[in-house]
Amino acid sequence: MIIYPAIDIKHGACVRLVQGVAEMETLYHEDPIEPAEEFKAAGAEWIHVVDLDGAFTGEMKNLEAVQRIAATGLKIQLGGGIRSLEDIETALKAGVTRVVVGTRACQDKAFVVEMAQKFGESVAVGIDAREGKVAVKGWVETTDTPAVNLAQSVAEVGIKTIIYTDIATDGLLRGPNFEGQKQMWAAVPCKVIASGGVSDTHDIVHYKNLSARFDNLDGVIVGKAIYENRVNLKELLGIAKG
Known about the structure:
An eight-stranded parallel beta barrel has the order 1-4-5-6-7-10-11-12, surrounded by eight helices. The protein has eleven helices and twelve strands. It is an alpha/beta fold. It has helices at about 35-40, 50-55, 65-70, 85-95, 105, 110-120, 145-155, 180-185, 200-210, 225, 235-240; strands spanning about 1-10, 15-20, 20-30, 45-50, 75-80, 100, 125-130, 135, 140-145, 160-165, 190-195, 215-220. The longest helix has 11 residues, at about 110-120. The protein has a single domain, classed as Alpha-Beta Barrel (TIM Barrel), CATH 3.20.20.70. A hairpin with a 2-residue loop joins strand 2 and strand 3 (about 20-30).
């Protein structure tokens, strides 16, 4: 199981939002390279980076910061504002290891087929859900599409990795929606990365125990709990490797 510490970038700085609401923002680092270096020092190999400006506007805005993070040698999983094959190419050339497509993947199945065929393991689909329904455009709009249905659809056409975020728990430090994550792992054969709500070390222990039952539980994204010193990243990495 992989721990993906998260860096959310807005206007070039490292911030965290609550449930994706732009106005509910906390600034943690003026320069996102600082947490990246801390995560690497703790032993992280992967980080999950979100271009929040890109998610809200539909085009990548913080690529320079991403390139600087990539220069640390960390493997980057990047989402936010990636809407075309050209965007994916640009991100990969900037040093990103895996590109996450959310909004476009939810709206255009033909595009998902094309990106899966062209990029294989280098792309993932980000599925963000509010009460089980897919949310898009930086979580601003909620669709009528059940998240599980979308996951099955993209897995059928060759997507190997899904990042599943439960919006209701994101940024609240109240614990993950484990039942929702279980439904997702049970529904698809591909790897699923869980996101949203990790509040303490016990949550990661529970995920590690669940990984024995669900072998497609690839990893867990941890954000605010790290920044608020609720967890020790080095300890989480040890539990995950366990």
